[in-house]
Amino acid sequence: MILRHYSCAIPSHDNALCNTNTTLETIRLKQYIRNMKNVFLFFLLIAIALPSFSLPFNEKLSHDNVQALEKGEIISRNIGKYKNISIQGDNAGITRIKEEIKNLNPNYLVELTQIRPYKGNEDLAQKLRSILEDIPSYAGIQYWSVQHERYYDLYKTAEVIEKQTLDEKTTRYIADLFMEPFSTIHSIITLEQTDDYLLYTMENTNNLKFNDKILCVNKNNMKSAILLFRDGDNWIIYGLGGCKALKIAIFEERIERSFINRIKTFCNYIYEKI
Asked: Given 3-state DSSP classes, what are the helix, strand and coil percentages for the chain, each rounded to the nearest 5?
């Protein structure tokens, strides 16, 4: 009996091995839990640091741009080329507006963006369309001339020549817009509205000359586009405007300022009016 009692008190080799394995498993489990906590913290910090991921834009927008959008401000960016466009997402309207500008292939391009809450603005698409289709009211929009340091009319006159219904979602206007110093701009204005988006485009159908002397933009080489679509709890109002203009060294800065500032003026007028 004494021998049997004594032998049971001595731990066997198998018991010692079992205890060692249990200790290793416990250590591994604790290490795994710590690693998972670190992974969770890593992704949480990314989510906090990059709130723009929840908006339909890419990394072209700066942190300051995103903060301004979240406050409801209008941000304006001279982006120069199509490759610098910030809009991205699955909405079909995004594809359409990018197609319009990519086909233009401008060397002067500006982007204007604003975010508005959907709640309380459920009829925003109808309001925007009503303003965009009121083409005669374009006359008298105030444009600030940097060169002359005074306000001018963006368009002296704005006249609808013809209205065409292309299909159930697309309406086209032929219009003449008189803009100094480029004289009359013969324009095609198109509104395309679906359940997912409202898209407005305007382009010139005649050559534009500076003071009737210097050819600046060939026909169909200047375009403005405004897109409205819903993104979750928000409306996204996104504008692109640009032109493919001749690069004349002594006039380049003035041409860029003339066209880009006029496009900004028109888009800001529309954004503020709604």
From this structure: 40, 35, 25
